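Narrative of activities, Objective 1.

The group set out to show that a structural description can be obtained from nothing but a protein's sequence at a throughput compatible with the screening campaign. Below is one input-output pair from the validation batch, recorded exactly as produced.
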Amino acid sequence: MDNILQNIIDGNRMTNDEFVKLYNNADLIKLGQAANKVRLNKFGNDLATFVIDRNINYTNICLCKCKFCAFYREKDDDDAYILDEKTLLDKVEEAISLGATQLMIQGGLNKDLDITYFEQMFRLIKSKYDITIHSLSAPEIVHIAKMSNLTIEETLHRLKIAGLDSLPGGGAEILHDEVRKQISPKKIKTKEWLNVMQAAHNAGIYSTATMMMGSVESLEHRLSHLDVIRKLQDETGKFRAFIMWTYQATLNTIAGKHVSAVEYLKFLALSRLYLDNFSHIQGSLVTQGEHIGQLSLFFGADDLGSVMLEENVVKAAGVDNKINESAMLKLIKTTGRTPALRDTEYNILKIFD
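Output recorded for this entry:
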């Protein structure tokens, strides 16, 4: 195990067989140390970054009805909604007043919304505010294209002109169709998710990649997920970050498997070591909470996501781990790392000594 880890630290690419060997046999602390060395080799500093953003869900009406989701509603449910213009702008203005530089606008796959809704929304925001629109997951892009009788390429082109800056990695869950058939049978398949990301990258739209651990998947499924995003990153180089989070079983219809802190940190470290062509690996405060978020900085993470001014999807599943800026600064400083505020492109805006 030590020889494999040293080879990876020295810059050699991890094979899938080595991943499995390390997962099953490597010492957890040594994995963390190796991942941290790779992070340090990549960045050469002790910064731990975060962004200030707001998640705005424009609708909770969704035809997918994923079994792991507690957020979606039917159109005729009492609490179903489509966000009106005034509420949207109020949320954006409040976010900017609180220091946000990024909006993550996402929602359900609503049959009543075609591309004109999103073009109007993005143009409206951009006409009034200087803020990055990091929005719409791959399933949303496919849905918008279908509702608008457009190709994926045409859809992305029009949204980019309207103001879309980058794509979040949502809707990936586990990029293996054996899993997707069980937890989200109506959602796009693995190939479609990858095709959207490739089309976005080809159009000059950067994105992130995500993974949801702990539903019904095996280690083989998780590794396949890492393999396909690493291969796409080899081709395009336009994934900015990898973000893994854990399934929240509290209010959902599949039991799932509780992902322990040890398993989460082990997989985080292995992801840093395996994804040698990804710059940024994010620890998930939203699903892991502050203490495991801190530990993630010792297991290869260089970023802790966002001071999130609003989050509804994970909260709907019964988990609320939002954090304010002062708490974020204290959390990072306690680990011995230096907090740094970033933007969507990971440019450093401010270092907190």
